[in-house]
Structure formats: C-alpha cells, structure tokens
Amino acid sequence: MELSESVQRGLQSLADPSAFDQSCFQVLVDVSFRSLLSSRGDPGVLDQPELKRLDQIMLKQSHTAATTFILEAVKQSADKSTISSCLEELTFSAERIEIFYSTYQKHKTELDRLLASIGRCPPRVNDVSWRLQYHMKNSQVDKVNEPVYLISLDTENEGSSEDVNFTCTMEQLQDLVGKLKDAAKSVEKASQM
C-alpha cells in the first residue's frame, strides 16, 4: 500500500511504545474503527480517559493516520500478509500487528458495506429511443428550418429505472456519437490490459 508521508509518520508514532503504551494503543485502534463506523461522526471519540494524558496533536495525527490506513486496507481488500508487511515497515511490533489485524477482521464486513455505500454508481443505459423533429420557425425568427433530435435514454440504477430525456441539434448529436465511440475504444483498451 502506498501511504503519504504524514500517514506514515502518524503510524510510526502509533507504533512507538514510548508514545502509546499497550493499553493506549488498543484504545486508539478501537476508537479509530468506531469513528469510521459511527453514523453521526461522533466528535468526542478521542475523549477516552486512557487518551487524555497523551499529546493531543500527536493523538490526532495518529488517529487520522490509523483511519486512513484502515480505509486504504479495506479499499484494497488487504489480507493479513499485506497489512502485516506494511505495518512491519512502519516498525510495528508483532503483538501490535496482531491487535490491529484482529480488530480489522472484526469490522471488515461493516467497513466494506460503508465504502460500497459511498458515492453513486452511474446509471446503466438499457435502451435508447430517438425522434426527429423539424423546426420551421420559432417565436424570435420566422424561418429556422433546423432538425432537432429528441433523445430518450432508459437507464437503471440500483434497481430503479429512470428516463433521461434531452434534445440536440445535428452537430451536438454527431459530437455525442463521437465521444461515445471514444469512450467505447477506451473501455476496450482498458479491458485488454
């Protein structure tokens, strides 16, 4: 996993037994997972009595680094060897790696669901229908004599269907078709890699 320098520094502080003793380490790991899974983003998660005596700046940096590492691990579906090797490089002891990984395993399914719910998948186009209209005049000009295409896309997103309707001129339609062809070529190239 590639981690930024600030995340690496925060994790190295978390790995340091002089900065975080074993009980503080366990509490901070638990708090990091809880803060990600909390539905309301509880701002007081770092107000645990065990963490009060720590330097608050270092505590926040380590918490941020831990949550970033957790999300990155879940995003990449990291296994035990990946997590272990990454944490070993950051000077984590075997005992701390085991604590971190067991907590990760306990919450992995919930975190997978959380990441899957973030964002919106673009809708899938199921069908396209079109109709040609010819505008002969409008309210500003007596003679327009211009074809206009009425396009209707039947789309589906997460089980619900929706129609997307728009109009375009001949030039706009040609531009759209060209961009769709470029996109199809890009997808084809990406699938061949």
TrEMBL record:
Pfam family, one: COMM_domain
Classification via PROSITE patterns: COMM
COMM domain: residues covered: 124-191
Cross-referenced InterPro entries: COMM, COMMD3
GO BP: sodium ion transport
Family as reported in the entry's similarity comment: Belongs to the COMM domain-containing protein 3 family.
UniProt name for this protein: COMM domain-containing protein 3
Classification of source organism: Eukaryota, Metazoa, Chordata, Craniata, Vertebrata
